[in-house]
Amino acid sequence: MIFQLKVIDFDHTLTKTKDDEGKSLDCSWGVMDNSPRLPASYTKECNALRSKYLPIELDPTLSIEEKMPHIIEWYSEANKILQKSKVRKEFFPEMVAASSLQFRNETNEMFDHLAKIHVPILILSAGLGDIIQEAISQKGLNYPNVKVASNFLVRRIKFYVLFKTVFEMNVSRHSIPRALSAG
Fold first, then answer.
1. Whole-angstrom distance, CA of residue 158 vs CA of residue 166
2. What pTM does this model have?
3. Which position has the higher pLDDT, 138 or 124?
4. Where are any strands of DSSP class E within 35-162?
5. Would you name the residues annotated as active-site residues?
6. Could you give the CA distance from residue 117 to residue 62 in angstroms, rounded to a whole number?
7. CATH fold label, 6-182
8. Would you kindly state where each structural domain of the chain is located, as residue ranges?
């Protein structure tokens, strides 16, 4: 018997980047960035970080080794902003429902088919795992064969922080089991 596993990225792979009119759609982090449930300062500060660090992440002239300190700094600073926002997991259903996040066409059919033939699906994402789980739940895609390895929030007294930080340059055969244990 051949073991099959489907590993799928979430943001802009399982979900659409733009709608039919060409308007940009939310990714998992965008659900939070564009939510009126969080203070305007959250979005402003996150946008400033994105403007600073995204060009570094996307720079093809820099090696992964050169990028890593900047990416780690970005996630660290973003986590501090997240803590100040006083986000609560109870906000997530409303935030996802009000967002512009859209799954690609025929996603339901693909998940249905893979569930019927018992093929495990691993959604591996640098996005926000809690938002991803809420989105797949609202879409009716939370089958037993679906697991999410991503960044998950944990409660720290009165606010949430990222438990494990997963981003595209630190994913390895060692980080996947650790990320799965966070969900």
1. 23
2. 0.81
3. 138
4. 121-128, 146-151, 153-156, 159-162
5. 9, 11
6. 42
7. DNA polymerase; domain 1 (1.10.150)
8. 6-182
Proportion of the chain in helix, strand, coil states, percent, rounded to 5: 50, 15, 35
Amino acid letter for position 96: V
Element (H, E) at 87: none
- Assess whether pLDDT exceeds 60 at residue 180: no
Measured from the Cβ of residue 83, the count of other Cβ atoms closer than 10 Å reads: 15
User: Above 70 in pLDDT, residue 74?
Assistant: yes
- 170, burial (CB in 10 Å: exposed 0-12, middle 13-18, buried 19+): middle
Residue located via tokens 């982090």: 29
What average pLDDT does this structure show over 4-16?
A: 92
Residue written as token pair 């340059």: 169
pLDDT of residue 110: 95
What's the whole-number mean pLDDT along residues 52-68? Answer: 94
User: Quick one: which H or E segment has residue 8?
Assistant: strand 6-8
